[in-house]
Amino acid sequence: MDSRHLLATALALIAAAPAAAQQAATPSPSAATPLDAVTATGTRTPMVAGEGAAPVSVIRREEIRERDARSVAEMMRDVPGVEISGAPRTTAVEPLIRGLGGERVVFRLDGARNNFNAGHRGRVFVDPELLRQVDVLRGPGSTLYGSGAIGGVIALRTLEPDDLIRPRPEGAELPFEFGGFLRGGYQTQGGMWRGAGAVAARAGDVAVLGALGGFSNRNLTDGAGNTIPFTADNILSGLARMQWRPGFHLLDLSAIVFRDSHVIPIAANTATTTSITDRDTEQEVYTLRWSYSDPSMPLLNPQVVLYRNHIRLDERRQTGTRARDTTELTTTGIDVQNTSRFALFGWDRHTLTIGGEFYRDEQEGTQNGRPRGQFPNAHQEVAALFIQDQIAFAGFTLTGALRHDSFRQSADGNTNERNADRLSPRVSLAYQVLPWLEPYIAYSEAFRSPSLTELYVSGQHFPGNSFVPNPNLRPETSRNLEAGLNIRFGDVLRTGDRLRARITAFENRIDDFIEQLVFARTTESRNVRDARIRGVEAEIQYDAGTWFAGLSATALRGDNLTDNQPLASVPAHRMTLSGGYRFLDDGVTVGARWQLVAAQDRNPTNIPGLARETSGYGILDLYASWRPAFAQNLRFDIGVDNVFDHAYRRSTWNANPAPPFYETGRNVRGSVTLTF
């Protein structure tokens, strides 16, 4: 389906909205869209997602529940500019942002960096049940987040006590406040049972939270009725948190634990069904955050985050050598910043953020207890300083930022220690032309330092072929120019409704792109090409309290400028239409999502194993929730994904010859939640 037809369909549906609105009842005064959510990811200071020159999409707790996703990547599939890379599994799928994935996207979990990446094994290991919000910054973000943010930044935030604690009943003499939930559910795909529970309490200045969640499923089935092999999973995760708020201080200590046990291909995010391993995945993330915020001291708003993120994969190969592999990465770091708010001349307002970051990555790979060259024992230390000033004057907001990163990378037994540094600038200008219209333009540069594995890998790739290290790799760099419009209307069709929209066009030029090249007897990472990705993104959301509608659309074009070929990683044009109705008196919400994806026929012809063309498709999902008036603490959810059991493949994992299975077929799911 042509992208112009997709956009025409969307505009027709939006145009039909007024007729439906005329028949609706008085909306809830709290009608709000995700573009009204508060986020600090785009600028490191709180802002409304639909304002400013930082294109950030926010997925809130309510949307997480409605989607009922089993992975973070699946949860983000409707975000403009984001696509899922990887075969249909509950683990090891990864998100692409604007056609870039892997280590070209920065992940942060409660402020802790997640730098794990090891040979198609996946990057993010967290159960969505434990999340309160997900922020997606689209486009280069190295100015604030350093190496890897060429495609963007994904910030995950876990549950906090305030999300669960309910006000103390009037007249109650309890010495504390508390709240929590229990949730259980089932889905037909894989016969999956899942459950989660959390409880939080507050006494005085101290609040605590504990949460536990997990699921177990058999192999999934695709839209053609085929079993998708090696998709069974058993996951258990937990969260513990304590917060202390003496005066204007906040001390927040959290621990996140993830455990996964399954039989899966070693290259887990591909469509392969060979090289099978019995894999256990463990992740432990510990963070300690301190902040201070006194309204009477606008020059002092510091925040410090200390963290340790440890990931370990233990794999017992079921074929071939039947070796036992371990893959470990530990990231320890500190992130410090202070924000000052002031005026210099009386007609301007400054929000000045100055900060620094230091982190150390230590990775280790073994096979049968001995060092494994495919994941070399290596480490890197990164130190960074950054500054950003947001200047508001006469309807304009001018933002300038600069970051300096310094790297030191080395491997055990390797004399080629690397020292490098990089500057990452960003400047943007937004202008509030009208109360409802804010255009903006932005220029930013980003980079990705070569990974420790790319620099120091060695050993056998496959029989007759060996890895060759390349300690002379140059960093990937990007230059991104984009322009956009923010649109914010209220009382459009009726009193209290909200219409929010963001439309963005961009061009991202990437130099010294690093690729892994496979020759007859050797495999080596090299800086091989320059690339360009252009695109248009649209995000439109309307909420009238009783009914709501939305549209997200993405059209991307990627080119390998060195070989004059299309880029392989760029997904097909896509549009998602969503909408629903809330029967407020009955506590019922019904909704639908319709994802339309165009055919992708711009694939390179010089790379073996890639599909020449991927067919377009349309997928319809339906969902409903009910909170009965006689029991407001109960919630029932039901949904049907891929209603018509369509057999399709995403362009980001299809291959030539075609894999023996498609994406997951129809799935009927339901859950019950009890809050207290």
Automatic annotation (TrEMBL):
The keyword Signal applies. One of its GO terms (cellular component) is cell outer membrane. PROSITE patterns: TONB_DEPENDENT_REC_3 (PS52016). Residues 53-153 form the TonB-dependent receptor plug domain. CDD domains: ligand_gated_channel. Residues 276-643 form the TonB-dependent receptor-like beta-barrel domain. GO terms for molecular function: heme transmembrane transporter activity; siderophore uptake transmembrane transporter activity. PANTHER family: HEME_HEMOPEXIN UTILIZATION PROTEIN C (PTHR30069:SF41), TONB-DEPENDENT OUTER MEMBRANE RECEPTOR (PTHR30069). This is Hemoglobin/transferrin/lactoferrin receptor protein.
